[in-house]
Amino acid sequence: MNEHLSQKIFPTTQLEDADGEGHNSSLNPTMGEIISKRFSRRSFLQGSLAVAAITATVSPVALMTAEKARANGASAFSFPEVEAGVDANHHVAEGYSADVLLRWGDALFADAPAFDPTKQTAEAQRRQFGYNNDYVGFIPLEGSSTHGLLVVNHEYTNPHLMFPGIVKIVDGKISQGKLSKEQVDVEMAAHGGTIVEIRKVDGKWKVVPESRYNRRITSTTEMQLTGPASGHERVKTSADATGTRVIGTLNNCAGGVTPWGTYIMAEENFHGYFSGELPEGHKEAANYKRYGVPEGGYDWANYYDRFDLSKEPNEANRFGWIVEVDVMDPAATPKKRTALGRTKHEGAASIVSKDGHVVFYLGDDERFDYVYKFVTSGTFNASDRAANLDLLDEGTLYVAKFAEDGTLQWLPLIFGQGPLTAENGFASQADVVIETRRAADIVGATKMDRPEDIEPNAVNGKVYVMLTNNSKRKADQVDAANPRPDNAFGHIIEITEDGGDFSATSGKWEVLLKCGDPSVAEVGATFSTETSKNGWFGMPDNCAVDSAGRLWVATDGNNNKATGRTDGLWAVDTEGDARATSRLFFRVPVGAELCGPLFAPDDETAFVAVQHPGDGGDDWSGHGRPSYYEDLSTRWPDFKDDMPVRPSVLAITKIGGGKIGI
Ligand code: FEO
Ligand code: CA
Ligand code: CA
Ligand code: CA
């Protein structure tokens, strides 16, 4: 989601203000403070050198250097770079085809109704592809790279782009009316996830509508709470006296696919769905404050009491979890695995460690929040799928502490250890996981600049952490030469776990890349000097590592006047002389951010999710005014007058076949 809670139709800058200082009032140091201490001089030098070299790219010396690097095969990527910019359509590198696979409203079942944006119903939406596709995963069937289950999260809804007749323009700004119960029901059905069988036929991917696996999961699908918080008093409600059954999942951002082939949906900005006030003196007040609950961005509480804190004070403790879905059984109850903690989970990418434990990397996407990992107690059994199905109920949740000397400690969040005791208000592991953020605060975790996707790389053994930005960093980190008041373009950290063991409790870290325009010296961006003017980016958000171990970074937030470029997918070298060289492979239409991305196991398809296209356009000369259902900045991807803009998943393939980017 772009700066989150974009359910509200305010421009990004206002949303950032709405996000305020984040919700972490602990005194732990920020990652930015540590980096500025550790790298201030080196970064300054790198930034200055980068600028000098870019100015000199016309010089024969620089050209020779670039050619020599390429002749040495320094870059792992080869494709003609896309030109950065903003317009109504998507663009992919020449020689590649980006085909629409699934659009909001597309039928997922043989008997599903055709999409009619003027006659939307919850019943129809439950049989169709949902809104705002985010995470994309692929679970091969019989080991195939051309036949499998695509799993896609539907993070949130944009009513002003979805529904006709709900927007007025007042003083040049969008004013959105209250949604009807029918519209709220459509929104609830448009959230969640999709599981759909797909097959590549003659080089093109197709949906299999008659598949027995196809399924929609929504904000009304019944789920089970498992792990330490299951059945606890703090998760009981009037509708669920057992504290074990939850209705639905919310704001599923990124996610993961486990080594045993289940689908992980991470619940991110759950606070936005809750309204109302807790009863006076309620014991959850401090807990909810730490998570920013309630935010009140949605109209759901008008029709459903469980989203009203005054009526159902514990309901918000039942969201913010990692959800696991067994895709092989379409009737399986999705499980909220509370052992992995309760945060604004961006995603949950996993890898099997040397000794068979399964390690999940977890970012809590808010300014000044933390990086986590979870290590299962049990080990992965490759020959017995069923033996793995409850691995996520037992294990150790850790939070990261980044030290100034480039080392890293993973601090365990275990009830009874260190400060996680009754004295500090933790009576059991249930309290630790329900208040994961507070537990991390008091063990001394490092405050980060919006940790988003975190991906382990099985080929080089490293872990990549996307840190989107943090406009609320201290004034001495903001430079007047930067045109944006929220002058942080984010950065990428590379972690090397000790002993090359993903389950290690310590490691080393360094900054792979400080993002932003390297031609503006004060930004201090550290792209290699071979990165072209199209190759730099800001706001790294989601990422993928392909089978060759190459890093691809998708961005969230470049779509504005200041950068003159939309979000997109960049190929980023991590090895050798080419390290920190970046190239633009794909870019999205106006208003969108790029989610996914995901490579099929044979690296011959890149799936990308274009989220919230057309959400904005005021600052693009091609539109120049607010974008809403009746006056959209783009009608991507159909470009038909009677069809609104539609978030969609695309399949990118090389024309004539072959691996992507080689
Ligand atoms: Fe949904 Fe953290 O982006
Ligand atoms: Ca984001
Ligand atoms: Ca995201
Ligand atoms: Ca990812």
Automatic annotation (TrEMBL):
<dbReference type="InterPro" id="IPR006311">
    <property type="entry name" value="TAT_signal"/>
</dbReference>
<dbReference type="Pfam" id="PF05787">
    <property type="entry name" value="PhoX"/>
</dbReference>
<feature type="region of interest" description="Disordered">
    <location>
        <begin position="1"/>
        <end position="27"/>
    </location>
</feature>
<protein>
    <recommendedName>
        <fullName>dTDP-glucose 4,6-dehydratase</fullName>
    </recommendedName>
</protein>
<dbReference type="InterPro" id="IPR008557">
    <property type="entry name" value="PhoX"/>
</dbReference>
